[in-house]
From TrEMBL:
Record domain Transposase IS4-like: where: 140-326
A biological process from GO: DNA transposition
Signal peptide: none
Top-level taxonomic group: Archaea
Listed transmembrane segments: 26-43
Taxonomy of the source species: Archaea, Nitrososphaerota, Nitrososphaeria, Nitrosopumilales, Nitrosopumilaceae
Gene Ontology molecular function terms on file: DNA binding; transposase activity
Official protein name in the record: Transposase IS4-like domain-containing protein
Length: 349
């Protein structure tokens, strides 16, 4: 335990030495402090009055603390609490940017991190990229990617008998299949992104690996209604309900679609557009946008295999990685970075 604590203290000290000249409108001591300050200036979420006891710590503050945990790759809330309790100059600067006088209890971390509205914040941040014209506002892309669960797999025969043959199995995970990876025991990250020069996540959702892609489509595109014109997707989204939902929200869903003898006139129009020169040109952006983005996000935060177990923990960890990636790219855009997608150096990877 002591060795782990010393590792994160050493890592933090090295990170605080990284400095970058940025506009004076954003205070900075390091990339981390710059991003934390940026979070405090954005209107990602507003706490509303609710029944019962009001929150002592605002949602945005808890988000900043979760960003610190993710950025520093601190593996547990216990270690995060210990790390932030250290009386160092760097910690004072971090807590000062967050506006935190008293450190929350560790159990507060456990409770609040699980219920942070990360999906809504990611959607809001995606809207910021579009409204500020930092990304192309015509076409977005949607897809999903499997994430292996931590520990051994739970075979279907044992699941059927409700038998856990070995310790360490993440019992919340499920089996999912992809053409590139085959059968995977784990979870699934669903995401939409921009296309064109700057590719950035616009919305995200999370599920177990057995959930079909078309079941999360509506949540992914809802924040994009009125902001984009086209949504491109793979054949898994070829669903009449999704075409109608897209049309109702002034979006055009473009995905591979086949014509049959009994194809309705409405579907024939979709086939004709997909096979047209314009349709093929729009769809060609998919392979150079959403597919590489998944690999970049996974590589940046090391989430090809989940570092934690149980659905709530994995969901919180993966979605905050997507949000942090958005924030780092936005930070680079605001500070005039030539290539905003250069984010690994910010994490000292």
């Amino acid at each position: 335990m002591k060795r782990a604590k010393d590792h994160f203290i050493s890592r933090f000290t090295v990170q605080m030495k990284t400095k970058k000249a940025i506009p004076s409108k954003i205070r900075y001591e390091s990339f981390l402090i710059g991003v934390l300050y940026l979070v405090g200036t954005l209107s990602l979420y507003e706490d509303v009055l609710r029944r019962g006891r009001p929150y002592v710590y605002p949602t945005i503050l808890m988000l900043q603390l979760l960003i610190i945990k993710t950025w520093m790759r601190i593996p547990s809330n216990n270690l995060l609490h210990y790390f932030l309790s250290l009386d160092t100059t760097q910690n004072k600067k971090i807590l000062g940017v967050c506006g935190l006088c008293n450190l929350p209890d560790r159990r507060t971390f456990d409770r609040r991190f699980k219920i942070l509205p990360l999906k809504e914040m990611i959607g809001t941040m995606g809207g910021v990229f579009i409204s500020e014209r930092l990304v192309d506002n015509t076409t977005g892309s949607v897809d999903s990617s499997l994430i292996k669960a931590k520990g051994p797999v739970w075979h279907k025969s044992d699941m059927k008998n409700n038998c856990i043959p070995i310790s360490g199995i993440d019992v919340d995970a499920r089996w999912g299949f992809s053409k590139s990876k085959g059968w995977v025991w784990g979870y699934k990250l669903h995401m939409s992104c921009s296309t064109g020069r700057l590719i950035v996540p616009l919305s995200a959702d999370f599920s177990t690996a057995n959930i079909a892609d078309n079941q999360t489509y509506k949540f992914l595109v809802h924040p994009l209604a009125g902001l984009l014109q086209n949504i491109i997707a793979d054949p898994a989204y070829d669903d009449g309900k999704l075409y109608r939902y897209s049309k109702e929200n002034n979006l055009r869903l473009v995905c591979p679609i086949k014509k049959y003898d009994s194809t309705s006139p409405e579907r024939l129009e979709l086939v004709e557009f997909y096979e047209s020169v314009e349709g093929q040109e729009i769809y060609s952006d998919r392979k150079i946008s959403i597919e590489p983005l998944f690999e970049i996000v996974k590589s940046t935060f090391g989430i090809r295999v989940s570092p934690v177990r149980r659905f709530g923990n994995v969901k919180s960890f993966v979605l905050v990685c997507v949000l942090v990636y958005q924030l780092m790219m936005y930070y680079n855009c605001v500070t005039g970075m030539e290539n905003p997608r250069t984010v690994k150096r910010m994490l000292c990877n």
